[in-house]
Amino acid sequence: MTIDKGSIGANRTGGAPGERAAGSPIEFRLDPGSGVPTYLQLVQQVEHALRLGYLRHGDQLPTVKDVVKSLAINPNTVLKAYRELEHRGLAVGRPGQGTFIDGTLRHVGLPQQAELRKTLMTWLRSAEVAGLDEEGIIALFTSSLRDFAEHPGAPVRTPRPRREVTHHDQAGVVA
């Protein structure tokens, strides 16, 4: 999923794809290999854009027609995503006008985001040097995020290395 600040997936001005159209500061992208349903990918991208401050109250989402044209998906998929955003209190449809951001999510200011991003990029480089590939980084991050969410404020746990099984003694105890 990608959020491109300042652009949308298709435009209403007849210009080149990706060129900014009036009224919509987001471009939707799909990851067919993610296993996440298409409509939820759209919902998640709007939520991420809200958290990052790319979308604000009153911003217009791309029209269903524009999203269908740029992503080659069924209009009902886009409508389902927009209905879900309405259900979550994040958007409101205005007949004849479009769908607009009507709610907010907690987000961090741009200076703090920049500092956090810098720290995260340093961590990612360290993970790469340590030998983790993208899937390994995702697995480690996801596991750490889950631990953090389940035990906020708890001290950082370092996983214990597992002992290799070398042989069994006569009592069946692993040495």
Explained architecture:
The structure is a single chain. With 175 residues, the chain is mainly alpha-helical. It folds into 2 domains: 1-104, Arc Repressor Mutant, subunit A (Orthogonal Bundle), CATH 1.10.10; 110-150, no CATH class. It is 42% helix and 5% strand. The chain has 5 helices and 2 strands; from the N terminus they run H-H-H-E-E-H-H. It has helices at 38-52, 64-71, 75-87, 110-129, 134-150; strands at residues 91-94, 98-101. It has a two-stranded antiparallel ribbon. Strand 1 and strand 2 form a beta hairpin. Helix 1 packs across helix 3.
Which labels suit this protein?
mainly alpha; two-stranded antiparallel ribbon; 42% helix; Arc Repressor Mutant, subunit A; 2 strands; disordered N terminus; 175 residues; 2 domains
Give the structure's gist in a few sentences.
This protein is mainly α.
The SSE order reads HHHEEHH
* Largest sheet: spatial strand order: 1-2
Show unreliable segments: 1-21
Any idea of the CATH class of the largest domain? Mainly Alpha
State the CATH superfamily name of the largest domain: Winged helix-like DNA-binding domain superfamily/Winged helix DNA-binding domain
Shape: globular
The gyration radius over C-alpha positions equals 22 Å
Number of DSSP E strands: 2
Q: What is the percentage of strand-forming residues?
A: under 5%
> Count of DSSP helices?
5
CATH architecture of the largest domain: Orthogonal Bundle
Determine the N-to-C terminus distance. 48 Å
Helix residue percentage? 40-55%
- Structural class based on helices, strands and sheet pairing: mainly alpha
> Looking at CATH, which topology of the largest domain would you report?
Arc Repressor Mutant, subunit A
How many domains? The number is: 2
Average pLDDT score: 80
Largest sheet properties: 2 strands, antiparallel
